[in-house]
Amino acid sequence: MPIITQLRLKILLTLAIAFILLQYTYVNFNEQNWFNSSIVTTVKKCHPSTNPVPLIHLNVSGIEAMIYNKRQTTQTNEKQFITLCPETPTDLNGTMRILVPAQETLEEVAQQLSWLKLLEGGHHEPLDCQARYKIAIIVPYRDRLSNLCTFLLNMHPFLTKQQLDYSIFIVEQFGDGLFNRAMLMNVGFNEALKLRDFDCFFFHDVDLIPENDRNIYSCPDQPRHMSVAIDKFNYSLPFVDLFGGVIGMSRNHFELVNGFSNNYWGWGAEDDDMACRVRAHGLNITRYTPDVARYRMLSHVNQESNPSRFEILRSSRERFNTDGLNSLEYRVKSLLQLPLFTYILTELSGGCN
């Protein structure tokens, strides 16, 4: 073969190999970019609200000033207790009258509850015995001042009468993106433990008020569904697997199931997901009898439903170990220990702000 032909063949072969390598590199680069962009889109996906009414965050400046004055004058004395508080206090009467605030303002509620001498952060503990547990009440919140005022006016006397050592946490979602109730409860759990070593947690909708003081918020041995009989549902349980509204769990059990899922933006199915987590970890949902576990639901505007909630729920078992407390991302914008509650304003990862 002539030398010129061999040289030409080598050049053509080299060019062909170079072209193949270049094409492979280009395709691989684009596939990698597509994969990376898909990950970023998934993590940073925004969940905008379609509500045309702008949201107003909770204004706590009035009661914040009240607690400032109280700090200057209040002195605490060390207490020594001889006996534990009874598991069932003796002066419980059963049916309760639901109280309504004279004005739907936090300042008015604080004045009406001044006789309780609440401590900072919506904290109270019995004076004449040692409470058996340290309890955190976690309330996810958005734009329901009327409900919140009624809730606080009723819950503080209810809980103090049960001789509980408790604190109430109001966890508000920053911005106007779709509401993520479950994620807010995870945030409340995390932030509460930074302030105190709580034994158990009650995750509580702000529109549900207990009607019987024998519905005791004590630490449950197994996860407890509290709001069994709600007036809206004719005081009957809508379905046997219901685990929403108000639930109580020990710290150990909540950590065992990895908390709530963070994937439910908009109303619905996060409670069903939690029920699946509870059962999957060998735990049982317990309840008081319907004559005791009675609640009134306060009127409110319904949240936007999550159209994908059932699709997300179908894959819940696949996400128990990766979606929850260990994947929670948020930023606390404000944390204030006020006379009526500890206020947490939080920006959630994945929300539109």
Automatic annotation (TrEMBL):
The terms under GO molecular function for this entry are: galactosyltransferase activity; metal ion binding; N-acetyl-beta-glucosaminyl-derivative 4-beta-N-acetylgalactosaminyltransferase activity
What cofactors are annotated for this protein? Mn(2+)
Per the record, the major location class is membrane
Ranges for domain Galactosyltransferase N-terminal:
85-220
Tell me which Gene Ontology terms the entry assigns under biological process: carbohydrate metabolic process; glycosphingolipid biosynthetic process
Asked whether the keyword Disulfide bond is assigned, the reply is no
- Bilayer topology annotation: Single-pass type II membrane protein
Q: Where in the cell is it found?
A: Membrane
The Enzyme Commission number assigned here is 2.4.1.-
Extract the InterPro entries matched here. Galactosyl_T, Galactosyl_T_C, Galactosyl_T_N, Nucleotide-diphossugar_trans
Q: Cellular component GO terms, alphabetically?
A: Golgi apparatus; membrane
Database matches in Pfam families:
Glyco_transf_7C (PF02709), Glyco_transf_7N (PF13733)
- Which pathway does it operate in? Protein modification; protein glycosylation
Which keywords annotate this record? Glycoprotein, Glycosyltransferase, Manganese, Membrane, Metal-binding, Signal-anchor, Transferase, Transmembrane, Transmembrane helix
The record's top EC class is: transferase
Query: Which residues belong to any copy of the Galactosyltransferase C-terminal domain?
Result: 224-300
Keyword flag Chloroplast: no
Summary of the function given for this chain in its UniProt record: Catalyzes the transfer of galactose onto proteins or lipids.
Which family is annotated?
Belongs to the glycosyltransferase 7 family.
What protein does this entry describe?
Beta-1,4-N-acetylgalactosaminyltransferase
| Organism in which the protein naturally occurs | Sipha flava (yellow sugarcane aphid)
